[in-house]
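Please produce the structure of this protein holding EPZ.
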Amino acid sequence: MDAILVKGGRALNGEIRVSGAKNAALPMLAASLLAGGKFKFSNVPDLKDIETIRQLLSTMGAEVDRQGDSVHIDTRNVENFEAPYDLVRKMRASVLVLGPLLARLKRARVSLPGGCAIGARPINMHLEGLSRLGARITLEHGYVEAQADRLTGDEIFFDVPTVTGTENLMMAAVLANGTTVLRNAAREPEILALAEMLNLMGADVSGAGSPVITIRGVDRLAPVSARIIPDRIEAGTYMVAAALTCGTIRITDAEPDHLKAVISKLRETGAKITVKQDAITVTGKRPIHSVDIKTLPYPGFPTDMQAQFMVLMSVANGLSVISETIFENRFIHVLELQRMGADIQVSGNHAMVKGIEKLSGAPVMASDLRASASLVLAGLVAEGTTQISRVYHLDRGYESIEEKFRKLGANIERVPESSS
Ligand code: EPZ
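Below is the modeled complex.
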């Protein structure tokens, strides 16, 4: 396993290009199961999770080839309806094949994803929704067995907005008999991007991006070409890096409209942010002002930016209360930041962060994708050297992170993890 070494203290300056969004690419690649033919996806990030869904689609009979930043998928021979445990356990978003498999092959056998570091993350809303559309669902030996001759449209109300739940049911409903209405649906940009792709394929989806999505079932869909939208969380991560290190970073190929909550909060901390079409420029300044954040479903402050923002607050000039309302265990990075000297007290789903002058470099361990990004950020401003182990978490969601940070002037390198 690799580790990343970061020597802190440098202001980061320069320009980076945001890659395509992992959380848009995963549902869109899964949607290729809905029609037999040749799909072309461009601006696909080169990430471990994309490799995992490539393997998953291949086991189903699809031909999946990467050519540069494009992925070509031929789904004419898709016939295997099983998503095996060894792939699903690597990436819970594999559950996104459930809806498309049911819609196209009338059957699906998908391993239950199990829990993960940030929470139990059940898929009950996915399964309850599919049952409402007429699927017969059983759970056997750790697998979801689902069957349906033809799904029938119905009304589904989500207890809480679920991103992949909304995506799974949108994909299940596009070939159903009749109309499906999803209420209290998630509103993330990745959902709108998926709906636009489905409509390009011949589906009839309206309301995506709002809490009520209406899907009128059609008889068949056709393959398309689609471009993956920019990764708003990657962009947000580099914005925080500029604020933290008091540098100026220009982030290109971004979509500022997807980052309104993050831009607003960062401005409150004192960072200077200018937005031009697809570019966001952030200049960090001292003092960093302490602000409170509360993670919420989109368009609220994203939970995927909580850990990164906590690093910024750990060197701010006062007390910040960070409330995590989406996942029940998304403060694992607190323990690692405390080892670097951060003054953070956790009580329930609140973290009280008292800003200190400087973090100190230390060996730390990554636990989940966004927590590992926050440890890299902490290393960039800590005194001395920080070694972050288990960086495979990072490689799941950040394309060439050390190259991009090195280009901005960071003293960062990837090394084999010392056996010690
Ligand atoms: C998506 O996960 C993202 N992943 C996550 O990004 C992101 O943090 C999350 O949405 C929230 O924004 C992808 O898009 C691949 P949810 P998802 O269903 O869909 C509960 C990253 O770092 N829930 O919106 O799994 C759930 O436990 C990842 O890129 C149920 O109880 O999240 C959570 O508390 C991490 N039952 C809340 O809803 C269900 O059936 C929201 O989860 C489904 C969800």
